[in-house]
# Entry
Amino acid sequence: MKELTLETMIAVFEEIFGTLLFWAMVAAAIAITLAFLWVLLRDRGLESRPLVWSAVLAPVGAVAAVWFVQWVTASGLADLGGPIDWIVLLAIAVAGGGGLMLLCYTAQALIRGRRAG
Amino acid sequence: MARFDELAASRRRFLALAAGGMLAGAAGAGAPAVAQVSTRARIVIVGAGAGGTAIANRLAGRLDGAEVTIVDGRREHWYQPGFTLIAAGLKPAPYAVSTTAEWLPRGVRWVEDWAAEIDPEAKTVVTQGGTRLDYDWLIVASGLSLDWAGVEGFSLDMVGENGIGAHYASPGHAARTWAALDRFTGRGGTALIQRPATEMKCAGAPLKLAFLADDRARRKGTRASSRIIYAAPQQALFSVPIVAEKVRMLFGERGIETHLQHTLRSIDETRRIATFDTPEGPKELGWDFINIIPPQRAPEVVRNSPLPWADRWTDQGWIEVSQTTLRHARYPEVFGIGDICGVPKGKTAASAKWHVPVVEDHLVAAIQGREGTAVFNGYTSCPLITRIGRAMLVEFDYNNNLTPSFPGIIAPLEELWISWLMKEIALKPTYNAMLRGKA
# Structure
C-alpha cells in the first residue's frame, strides 16, 4: 500500500458500507457517545443498577460481534494463525461488548430519567 | 531501513490524522489534494480497466480544461481479483461485474469502441469504428490479451464440462470453473492446475486455486482419493525466491505435487489428457479437473504499434517504458499503466494502483514543463490465499525484497486470519476507491 491516509480509509469505509450507511453509523456512534457523556454529567457519575445490567449484556455483544465478522467472512476460530489474529479477535470482541454496554447503559439512563435526590 | 522509516512515518501521520478528529477528515474527504492545473491538453487513455479508469478520475480532479478521452469497447467492468473467489465457490459471478460507465467521471469522454491503431509518430489513435483521436498525451492502459488459441485443442465453450476450467476468461467462466471444481472435489481424482510460460497477471492466482482445491477436497472428505498437481514452465513456484520457498513448504505440507518446467501445449478433451512440453520431451498427464491459464500477450493493437520493446519480451509485446517513471523510452508523450507495461514485475491491480499516482505526477509535471519526481519501485501485492479463512500477505518490489505495509504487525509470510479478513472485507472496497481516484 503506497499511502495509508485518513482520506483513503474513509473512501474505503464508504465503499464497504455505502456512503449513506457509513456516515449514518458514524453519526449514530457519535450520538450514543454524546448521550452517554450527557447522562454521566447529569447523574454526576455512573449509576450502579443500569451499569450492572449493561455489564451483563457486554459478553453477548462481544460474542455477537465475533460471530458476525466470521459469518460475513466465511471463516472460523480455527483460522486464527498468529498473535495479530488473537489481537484482532479481542479488538472485535471489545468493540462489540463495549459498544453494546454503552448503548444499554445510556438507553436505561435516558428511560429512567434523572433520579430524584 | 529507509522504507521502514517511511512506513513508520506514514503510520504516525495516519495516527496523528486519526487523532485530529473525524470532522476535519469529513470536511476534507474527496477534495483534490493538490491545486488544479489549467491546460488545453488532449489526453487519450486506451483502456477503461482498473488503471485507465483510475487515472481518468485522477486527471478529472487534477486538470482544468483538459480534453480527456477514454477508449474502450467493453460495457462491463470486471473486478478481476474476484475471479479466483468465484472459481472456488466463495462468491457468485455477479460479485465481479459492474459497468464501465458507472466509474467514469463527468467531463471525461468515453469512446465506446476498441482501439484499432496507435500511431505515436502522428500522435493518433484510430478505433475499429474509424474514429480518429489526436492526442498530445497518450496513456496506454489496455491490459493484456489471453491467448486461448495458444493451448491446442482448447476452446472457451468447453469450460464447465469434462472437468475443464478457465477462470481467467470472465466472471461467467470462473463460475463454470467452480461447477467443474465442485464436481471434482466431490468425487476425487486428479486435478491439474497450471500457469503459462509468458508473463502473466496475478501469478499468485493459480497457486491460490491449488490451495483452495486442496481445502475444498479436505472439507468434503475426498482429499485422500485426490491428487492435486501444480504444473509450471518456470524453475520455481514464484518469481520471488523467499516466497517460492514458502509456497514449496506449504505445498509439501498439503501434499500438492509440483511439476516444474512443464509448459501446457495441448489438451485432448475426450481422453482427458493434457500434453506438456518438458526438458525430457512431451509428457502426458490425465485429469479429472484442469484449470487452463493460457499464454498472455499485449493486445494486437499494441503489438502492431511501435510501442513494444524491440529486444525484450519480443513474443509478448509489452511496451518499452521506464521501470521507475512508466514513461515511454522513445515517445516521451506516452505513458503506460497496468499489465501492458514492459517492466520486470507487477501485473496486478495493486501495482496498477501504484502506477496511477506515478503517471499522474509525471504527466502533470510534463504539461507544466517540468520533471516529475514520483518513482515506481516495482511494488506488487498478492493476498495469497492458502485455505478458506487464511491468507499470506505477500508484497515485494523489483529487487525481490519483501515490502510489508504493516511491518512488525502483519508478518508477510505467515498464514493469517487478518490477511483473509483484509481480502474479504477491504480489498474490493479499496479497489473501488482506486477506480474513483481516491486510493
Notes: Residues 51 and 352 of chain B are 6 Å apart (CA to CA). Chain B touches chain A through 46 residues (CB under 8 Å).
